[in-house]
Amino acid sequence: MKNEISILIPTYNDVCVDLVKALTRQCEAVSGLQFEILVADDGSTDAEVIRQNSYINNIYRCKYILREENTGRACIRNWLAQQARHEWLLFIDSHMAVCKDDFITEYLDAEGDVVYGGYVVKGDPLQLKGNLRYIYEKKAEPFHTAEQRACSPYQDFHTSNFMISRKLFVNHPLDVRFRYYGYEDVLFGKQLQRANVPIDHIPNPLAFDRFEDNAHFVAKTEEGLRTLHAFQNDLKGYARMLHVVSQLDKHPLVRRLFLWMYRKRKNSWRASLCGPSPSLLVFKLYKLGYFLELS
To answer: Is the separation of the CB atoms in 81 and 167 below 8 Å?
Structure first.
C-alpha cells in the first residue's frame, strides 16, 4: 500500500467543500498515511463560491488556493502537480462526489503508474427526467465500466478521477494549449500511449451527481466541439466525432445534404435541446452538424 498521496482538485465557480471533507475522512482513517488536499481555484468570478470554498483552509491538511487569473483546464492541473509534495497525485474534478467507503484505499492499493477509476451516474431519474446531461451520461454509463474502458485504455481516459506518479506527470504534463472545455484528457491519453506508458483501469468510481441545465450543457458541448475542431490534427484516431466525419467525407453528396438539413433546422434543434424534453438523437445530429459547419 502507498503511504503518501497529494489529492489535487481544480475548481472554477464550484463549491467543493463536501468533496474535500469526504476525502479527508477517508485519508485520516488510513494509518500512517501522509496526505494533503490542494484545491486550486482557477479565477472564479462568483464571490459566494469563493467565500464557501475558503472554509477548506480550516480542514486538516487541506488548502484552498485562489488564483486571480483563469489559466485553463490543462495549465491549472500542471500547476497543482508542481505544488504537490507527495510522490502520488490523485486528480479529482470538483463537481464529483465520493460514493465508496474504500475509495482512497483502492487507489493506495492499486498497481501501475497511471490508474483511472471511472465514474458512475447518480441522481433521481424523476427529478432529472428532462435534463439532457443526465440523460446523455446515463445512456453512456454502461460503456464506462472498467472492463469496457480497458478495451480502449487510452481513448477512454478522463482527468476527472485518476492517480499518477508525480515524476511521470511532471515529465508528461497536460498540453497547455487547451484552455477551454474539452479534449485535454484525450490528448493526454495519446501522449501516454506514444510514451508507452500503460493506463490501468479499475472499478473505483466517483459519483457524477450534479447536472447543469440544458442551455448550459448545450453551450458547453459547442465549446468542446470548437476545441476538437481546433485540435483535430492532434486528436485523429482518439475522438469518435472525427471518425464519423472521416466516414462522411467519403460521401460528399451525403455530407452536403446533411449540412443543408442542419442549417434549416439547427435553430429549432437547439431550442428543443434547451427545452424540457430533449432528444438524444437530435443531440447527436446537432453535434455533427455543428462540427461540420465549423469546417
So the answer is: no
Q: Is residue 158 within 8 Å of 116, Cβ to Cβ?
A: yes
Give residue-wise pLDDT tens across range 241-267.
Answer: 999 999 999 999 999 999 999 999 999
Lookup: cell for 212: 447543469
| pLDDT over threshold 90, residue 77 | yes
DSSP states along the chain? ---EEEEEEEESS---HHHHHHHHHHHHTSTT-EEEEEEEEES---HHHHHHHGGGGGSTTEEEEEESS---HHHHHHHHHHH--SSEEEEE-TTEE---TTHHHHHHH--SSEEE--EEE-S-TTTTTT-HHHHHHHHHGGGGSHHHHHHSTTTS--TTEEEEEHHHHHHS---TT--SSS-HHHHHHHHHHHTT---EE-S-PEEE-----HHHHHHHHHHHHHHHHHTHHHHTTT-HHHHHHHHHTT-HHHHHHHHHHHHHHHHHHHHHHHSSS--HHHHHHHHHHHHHHH-
Instruction: Write the Ramachandran bin of 239: left for phi over 0, alpha for psi from -120 to 50, otherwise beta.
Output: beta
Q: Which CA distances in Å does 72 have to 18, 81, 83, 93, 168?
A: 24, 15, 17, 14, 21
In this model, does residue 295 exceed pLDDT 90?
no
Distance CA 87, CA 36 (A): 11
* Global pTM exceeds 0.85: yes
Q: How far apart are the first and last CA of the chain?
A: 50
